[in-house]
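Structure, all two chains, one model.
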Amino acid sequence: MSAATKLRGPARVEINEVAPRDGLQIEPLVVPTDAKVAFLDALSACGFARIEATSLTSARAIPALADAEALMHRMQRHPGVRYTALVPNLRGLERALSCRPDEVNLVMSVSETHNRANLRMTRQQSQDQLLAMIDAAGAAGVPVNVSLSTVFGCPFEAEVETAAVMALATRFADAGAAGITLCDTTGMAYPTQVAALCAQFQSALPDTGLTIHLHNTRGMGLANAVAAWQTGVTRFDAAAGGLGGCPYAPGASGNVSTEDLVHMFDCMGVETGVDLGALLDVVAGMPALVGRDIHSQLLSAGPRLRTHQPPAWLAEHFAGQP
Amino acid sequence: MSAATKLRGPARVEINEVAPRDGLQIEPLVVPTDAKVAFLDALSACGFARIEATSLTSARAIPALADAEALMHRMQRHPGVRYTALVPNLRGLERALSCRPDEVNLVMSVSETHNRANLRMTRQQSQDQLLAMIDAAGAAGVPVNVSLSTVFGCPFEAEVETAAVMALATRFADAGAAGITLCDTTGMAYPTQVAALCAQFQSALPDTGLTIHLHNTRGMGLANAVAAWQTGVTRFDAAAGGLGGCPYAPGASGNVSTEDLVHMFDCMGVETGVDLGALLDVVAGMPALVGRDIHSQLLSAGPRLRTHQPPAWLAEHFAGQP
């Protein structure tokens, strides 16, 4: 086989930090609003392109995010950061619009069973509702992104048809969604699959912003990110500290951790706009935020060029040698 | 940017299982020989192309591997598996040859400080000794592989020059080494770097077997494996359970875990010859082997198509709906 010379991809990517919503929503500890505001403000200072701040969802369904409006009003908005909010239904959209999000993010699953389990609606009900929300958000002048769950596999149904993914993506793009996020909800994606679907998406919907949302459940998070990047993808969801997960896939770990992703792009000379040092400071404070240990590989090991002192015996052992 | 259509690479790869040597050598618990034999025999049944069984090193330096000869004699050799042994010096080579390895693996670091710290020799001393060992092994008719450490970065010196890597690889290949392993000793490699060096290597030394040895210290283990595979690399070191590490890089985690690597290649339709189910059974027994928890992502999450039962309320909630 002739050797390929280089891995190629875009020179610049955008990171959408989702820990405040996707992470905190399944943490056992309900983080107080003051601490959330401080967390969001610290993330805002890191240089993210987007931050998904919260979800305007039912406080009964997700008590951890019951302070959504307060948070959106109290957080400091940094120029250059787009603040998005997840919105599950028309009532949530109304609440969201009162908080002046730069964008709203809607969600449904490509697989029927996951949609029913996660959203308590059939796919048809979800699709109808999302189309109505795209109209309503459009009327209010707020751009809409649609996150499609279980795109690369479903924890209940196993394989998911690419045709079903593309049909939904196309339907929402045609209806006016500015962006679509392809979500690997439970970490079932693998690199050749990611590359093939991302390439197909960009070819079919070249004017729709494509974001990829990856989990690291089976160790392939960054491999999938590189695969997507090689096809031209420039937008990546990630969660500081690798927070997140899925209640319907026991053993599944969380999102690709933002610090690992930013570090990898830094190494590859791909601009993210994110200050890795500032981000690692935030991650270092996360165990206090969520009241449990956070296993951050990059925080443990440090960036790749962090050097260590040679053992003390070395100088003496080699004294007099060149 | 025009979207690339596909990630491409070889249809078949070979896995070299290194946990019995590279993993057990730094475990705090000295595993009894009986348990090691059972571990090796179980690995042999998984279908690996190569297993690095042990190291013929000083029992004082590495007490965990003091039973090297006994192990090599007692393990069952499976047809189709090549059994290799790490050999640090000429005395070790003599011992190794008495154990009938299918191949011996020599090691030195590309960076001076790591070579001194890890091997207590200057690079020049190591190089001279390796050349003498290549001669001696050649005279005995045993193929030699040379593992070059700190190829992608050194925990003491930071960046390592590609020219230094290629000079050493070329020197050993010219001297008769059948294979070279490029080792990311402390997990400093990143995908574009791996692809560039692997491409350069294969172009410069097309007749020398190239193996890549990756760590997952900063989450990039599988991303680097895919990068190498895309340039045509077909041989990968990996350690069951992700055992291993480097005593000179605090916080560094272990080798790419074999089960994650095999699973990824399985997903991508790339043949490894390894039976993932059999391997996961071995990994499940590893905590008992080494007397500590083993954090295996794949063992926790299961292969990607492992499905879960939908929540019990689902059927009733959607009763009567299509």
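The longest strand of chain A covers residues 103-109.
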